[in-house]
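Structure Section — protein described below
Tokens — whole-number codes for backbone shape
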Amino acid sequence: MRRHRTTTLVAGTALTAALALTGCGTLDTALGCVQAADAIATSVDRLSQAASNAGDPTQIEESLTAIDQELATLKEKTGNADLSKAVDGLSTGVEQVRTAVRDGDTTPDLKPVTDAAAEIGKVCTP
């Protein structure tokens, strides 16, 4: 639960900051980043829940796929080097979890995923 509150807080703070920006182009970009960060936070929360529910590989894979989709969307929209680096970090974490699950790990280490998702939240805060 603590991770969910943290990612929700990060996304909420980023949204508030984005709405305080001036200029439509900047606002649209920041808002898109915040929306993607929020979607990623939701997917990471689902991943955490799936991992804690006896490590259901199907639910874990669905959560990882949702994160991958949000990352693809976010990567298409960004020209920001810091955000690209954070997205790459989350992609790496997702692949590590996916590999662990495929290798039979029912309690994969989610820390790289949660840390990278938090970094995206930070980068998306204007």
The chain is about 80% helix and 0% strand. The radius of gyration is 14 Å. Confidence is low (pLDDT under 50) at residues 4-25.
